[in-house]
Specification:
alpha+beta, Nuclear Transport Factor 2, Chain: A, 2 domains, 6-stranded mixed sheet, binds 2-acetamido-2-deoxy-beta-D-glucopyranose, DUF8021 domain-containing protein
């Protein structure tokens, strides 16, 4: 009996530990990451340690060689999603001065209380990437409304994720009909396409390697994934590193932000 109880107690502890990441803890750690990025620090207390997994554009790099090690980036705009189920955050970052960037960073949390950053993945776009224009990204971002969705009107995690998957699945499968709002608008690089978000390409293909961050309060899902054919220099499999961030309102896709990395200027088009 004593053994059974301690097993139960351990199980209870384990459940507690995995549930311990809160919106507030994710917010605090993400703010630390942003401060480190703006001041050019590669060490900060939210990091689990100095050798956490760090990837830019799907390539493992040393923290000091990546965007955190560039001596400080002046951030003009940032917007974050907090996923308290997966213990992760996603932040969209726009910098228009000096070296202009649009960066999407996913922080994954772990450790005893799930409040230490154990993995950082960034999509880092700059000059020459797909439709890159940081000033455009900044101005369109500021015009959109991403206020928290009122409590009674929030979509479930499943509905938000399904909308994101449908958007991506429809590219290679015309039978998939994503739930677009009539006012759906897409910020693709720094270009804005309003009133029609539908995309479909042939021949049929599948988009793989999807990594999700979902925030019910913002009605948002971010998906890191690979795109099969955009960049002529990169094989269909794995494809180009890209990212789509969606805002879903009442089950319908309202905004889409896409940032795609090119191996050479304009993806060799
Ligand atoms: C990120 O955005 C928030 C909300 O607009 C702002 O308060 C904060 O200062 C920004 N952080 C950085 C490092 O620019
Ligand atoms: C650093 O943290 C990562 C992520 O939690 C872990 O996998 C790795 O073993 C840690 N390294 C050291 C030296 O403790």
């Amino acid at each position: 009996m004593a053994i059974m109880l301690s097993k139960l107690a351990l199980a209870a502890l384990a459940t507690q530990a995995s549930a311990a990441c809160t919106r507030a803890s994710l917010q605090a750690a993400t703010a630390e990451y942003l401060d480190a990025l703006s001041s050019g620090k590669t060490a900060f207390s939210a990091l689990a340690n100095s050798t956490v997994a760090y990837q830019e554009n799907d390539v493992v790099v040393d923290l000091s060689k990546g965007v955190l090690g560039q001596g400080g980036i002046k951030i003009d705009f940032n917007r974050s999603l907090y996923d308290t189920t997966e213990c992760a955050s996603y932040t969209e970052i726009v910098a228009t001065t000096k070296h202009a960037y649009v960066i999407g960073t996913r922080l994954a949390f772990g450790g005893a209380d799930n409040n230490k950053i154990t993995k950082i993945e960034s999509v880092v776009c700059d000059d020459g990437d797909w439709l890159f224009n940081a000033a455009g990204s900044l101005s369109y971002n500021k015009k959109e409304n991403w206020d928290p969705i009122p409590e009674g009107k929030r979509d479930s995690r499943e509905v938000i994720k399904a909308a994101g998957d449908a958007y991506i699945d429809a590219w290679g499968d015309a039978s998939v009909k994503p739930p677009f709002a009539a006012s759906c608008a897409r910020l693709e690089g720094g270009s804005y396409i309003s009133g029609n978000c539908k995309l479909n390409f042939s021949p049929p293909f599948k988009v793989t390697n999807r990594r999700y961050t979902i925030d019910e309060e913002l009605g948002a899902v971010d998906i890191f994934h690979n795109f099969p054919f955009l960049d002529k220099a990169i094989a269909r499999d794995p494809g180009t590193q890209t990212n789509n961030l969606l805002r879903v309102e009442g089950g319908q896709i309202r905004y889409i932000h896409e940032n795609t990395v090119c191996s050479k200027k304009g993806c060799n088009k």
